Amino acid sequence: MKKVLVISGITASGKSSAARRFAQKCGAEIVSCDSTKVYRHYDVGTNKPTKLHRSVLKHHLVDFVTPGSVQYSAGEFFDDAQVALTDIYRRKSSAVVVGGTWMYLRFLLYGKPSTGKVDPQARELVSHVLDLCKPDWGYASSLLEVVDPGAAQMVARNNWSRLSRYLEIFFHSGTTVSDHGRLGGSPGGDGLLGYGEYDFRPIFLVAPTAETWKRIDNRCRSMLRDNGIIEEVAFLLENNLIPDGFAVSRSVGYAETKEVLLKFARGVEQTRKRPAVVHYVEQMVYNNRKLARKQLKVFKQEPDFVWVDTVDAQILDETLVHLFQCSREDFDAYRNAREEMFLKERTLTRDREAMKMVKPRKYSETILDKFFMRDVQRRIETLAERVRKKLNITRNESGASTKRQSQYNANNLFPSNERHADCRVSGRWLSA
C-alpha cells in the first residue's frame, strides 16, 4: 500500500510549515485539506501558501474554486483528493496531506458516505423552511432531532449550513446521515486501512496552551498589519465575492473584518460603548482561540491520530519522517504508547485550565498596542468609505460619529471612562 502522511492540528499549530519541511526532506507533494484554501482571492485569512512556496513545492487543491453560488463540498474534495493522489503516485512521487477541516479529513481517511448529490428541489425546500425558523436555532435544530437524533447532537449551535445539509439528505433520499454510518466511514473498521490503496498515517500537532495563544496573537497581528486582511476583505466586498451564505465568509478573520467594514461604512463606529475597531481586534483573537479549543475537543474523539508535540521543530521533523517511513505495526505501536496518551491528557487538561481565564478583553499586549490600533483604525476608515461608495451604502447620520469623537480621538482609541487592567502596554494605560 502507498503511504500517505496526514498532518492536522489546531489553528496556528504549525501544520503548513511542518508539511513544507517534510515535503522538502522527503521529496513529497502537498495536498491541501482545508475548506477555505480552495477558494480564489481568499489568501490572507486562510494562510494560503505563497506563490514562492508553490513554485518550490507542488501543491494540490489550493486556489482553484471561484466563489459563487455553489459551495465546494466535502464530497467534491474526496473525489478531487483521489485524483490528486492517483496522479502523484503515478509519477512515482509521495504525498503529504495537510489541513484541519474535520469533515474533509474524515471523508479522506474513512471513505465517502453513499448519500449522493442532493437535488435542487430538496435544497430549495430546506432553505425555505430554515428561513422561516431563523433566528430560532432551538426550533430549527429540533426538526433534525425528530428525524435523526444522533446527527442532531453532532451539529454545533448556529451551524446552519451543517443543519441544512443533514436535512437536505433526509428530504432527498428518505434516509438519515446516521443510516450511512458514522460521518465518512467507521474509524478502526474497514475505512482507515481497508478502502482504496493508501496507507494513511494521521498526525495531530499540539503545543502548550500558552505557546498556542502566543502563536494566535502573532498570526492575528500579522494578518492585520503585514498581510492585509482588511484590504483583502474590502476587495471581496467590492466585487461581491463574500456572500453571506458561504461558509468561508463566516470563517474566523473574514466574518469579523466584514462586519467592522460594514459598520464603519454605515457610520456605526462604536459597539457597546466601546470603539468598534477595538472590539474587532479583540473578537478576531478571541474567536481564533475558541476555534483552537473546538478543534482540540473534536480531535480528542478521533482514535486513529497520533498526537505529536511541536515545541522542538527538529524533533518534530524527525518524528514525522520516522512515522512516515516505519511499518504499519510500528506506527500503531507508537500511537498506543503511553507517552502519546500522556501528551494528549496533559494538553487537554492545560487547555481546560487556560480557557477558564480567556475573556474577550484578556489578550497579550502585543495586540492591543495603541500605535498598532491607530493604524488599523485609519485603514478601516479609508477602506470602509471606499466600500460604502462602491456598494451605495447609506451612512447613518444619527449622531454616532459625534458621540464617538466626544469620547475618544485619534490618539486615544479607548473611551476615557474605560480604564481596565487588561489594556496596558509596557505598564502604562493605553488611554494615558
Structure, explained:
The protein has 432 residues and is an alpha/beta fold. Helix content is 52%, strand content 9%. It contains 17 helices and ten strands. It has helices at residues 15-26, 51-56, 74-90, 102-110, 120-133, 137-147, 149-154, 160-173, 209-227, 229-238, 254-266, 276-300, 313-325, 328-335, 338-355, 370-391, 400-407, and strands spanning 2-9, 28-32, 59-60, 94-98, 198-206, 270-271, 274-275, 306-309, 424-425, 428-429. The strands form three sheets. A six-stranded parallel sheet has the order 3-2-4-1-5-8, sandwiched between helices. A two-stranded antiparallel ribbon has the order 6-7. The protein has a two-stranded antiparallel sheet with strand order 9-10. A hairpin with a 2-residue loop joins strand 9 (424-425) and strand 10.
Key features?
single chain, 432 residues, alpha/beta, six-stranded parallel beta sheet, two-stranded antiparallel sheet, 17 helices, disordered C terminus
Content of β-strand:
5-15%
The main β sheet shows up as:
6 strands, parallel
Q: How confident overall, as mean pLDDT?
A: 80
What's the overall geometry? globular
**Gap between N and C termini, in Å?**
65 Å
Q: Give me the number of helical elements.
A: 17
* Poorly predicted ranges: 186-191, 399-432
Q: Trace the largest sheet across and list its strands.
A: 3-2-4-1-5-8
The helicity comes to: 40-55%
Radius of gyration: 23 Å
Can you count the beta strands?
Answer: 10
Structural class category: alpha/beta
SSE pattern, N- to C-terminal: EHEHEHEHHHHHEHHHEEHEHHHHHEE
